[in-house]
Model the fold of this input.
Amino acid sequence: MEIKAKVTKPESIVPVRALVLPGGGGRGAYQVGVAKALLEQGIVFDYAFGTSIGGLNAALIAQGDLARLEELWCSIRAKDIYHLPSPNTIGQMVLGHHLGILDTHPLEEVIRKEVSLHKLKESHTKFGVCTTDLCSLQTSFITTDDIISTSELVDVLMATCALPMAFPPRQLHGSGLWVDGGLVRNTPMHAALERGADEIYMVLLHPEQINVCPANMFEVIARCLDIVLDASARKEIQSAELYNRLIADGNIESRGRKMVSIKVFQPHRQVSTTLLEIDPHRSRQLVNQGYAEAMEHLLDFREAGNPVNKAKAS
Done:
């Protein structure tokens, strides 16, 4: 999908670019393939913003570890991310002492091992995620500029990945119950607009068309979450379209702002993986699918007369 915007600028000026990665659980490997294609084409990002699994992907991309991210996706399984509840956990849930069905300690170990606050602080690509507090209903956008320790970074990433009911919420600075920000704002596009992005590359994780009915209760729940995430993403896209229209019409409130080119990538065909299914074989297929479809999309974009400016060689 393409939101066209007329932007006139000298060829020598490299646009400010933002990579925006929403949530979608086990389908997150698709984003890795798209990012791989974009970077191979010389499209370097000033910002990498995400929500939920998109936040984790954005973190490793921002710190320059895309190859390691692909390796992780093509080797980990669901058991490396979460464990099914033990009888003790079920008892704690009944008593209200545990607020998530699944044990996410394995995910926390992966984050501690793979994500580096030092790399993120030093990177040219600025990183940020969305998370929502169940207590205050506040949705916050948090960047590495706001984070001062590795423990804080882990808390933020665990919070943005905390799918309500499935994963337990996380406290930030000792307060609140912070969860996946995708329930309110699945794509942090607004943050990219506020920071002056000229080009936004968004990678959605639900297919353009779905024609398969859920076959069991688990799939019904997953499909309901898909509907929420899809509605949130579409709202963000519509807001961006309105943003460009106001500028094009010379609206007084948009004075001094610039139009933004927004490219949306998403699976062209049905994806046979739900939010909590993580399998190396399927993930490899999704990486390859994301790469191939992104290359096709970029070719279509160029053939339409909209060349993509590459970053200058250093």
Notes: Strands lie at 2-3, 17-21, 47-51, 126-133, 139-143, 170-172, 175-180, 199-203, 261-265. The chain is about 40% helix and 15% strand. Residues 217-248 form the longest helix (32 residues). The radius of gyration is 19 Å.
